[in-house]
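Lab notebook page, bench 4
Experiment: in silico fold of construct C2
Operator: M.H.
Input chain length: 173 residues
Purpose: comparison with the prior construct
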Amino acid sequence: MTRLMPGGPVPDLEVALAGGGTWKLSDQKPETFTVVEVYRGLHCPRCKLQLLDMDHKVARYAERGCTSIAISTDPQDRAEKSVSEWGIHQLPIGYGMTTDQARAWGLYISDAFQEKETRQFAEPGLFLIRPDTTLYSNVIHTTPFHRHHHADVMEAVDMIRARSYPPRGTASA
């Protein structure tokens, strides 16, 4: 499994978007960060709450110089159901991340154990990516539980900007 390092490059990523079009990380030009939320997929009720929270904060992220997207390993039909059934209105939803791509981003992969789940899917992760596509920080989960609140993430972005706070976890042996 890959371990991304703060200050180091993240793998480029291109995904299709629910509703049409594509999104590519290297095309993003935020002032501060690209906020990438990887979610488990349509089957996950906790992801619905997480994405609704993020959807309501897209404009507030933009005020802080951040672009945002949520991405899953779901196929197109399931991603589009997530948008319509969950009531996502502002947040771009990317789909079709492969398990190999998810592993390259350091995410954990789970096998389905319920019929409503896809055969394999990525567990959640949140990434703050600098404009030069290097990692500022990430939070990786092995389960759908213990999620962050996007108000807390925005508070962190405010503090990072105000204090020019460096990425942490970069010390070598």
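Observations: The chain has one domain: 23-163. The longest strand covers residues 33-38.
Next step: discuss at group meeting.
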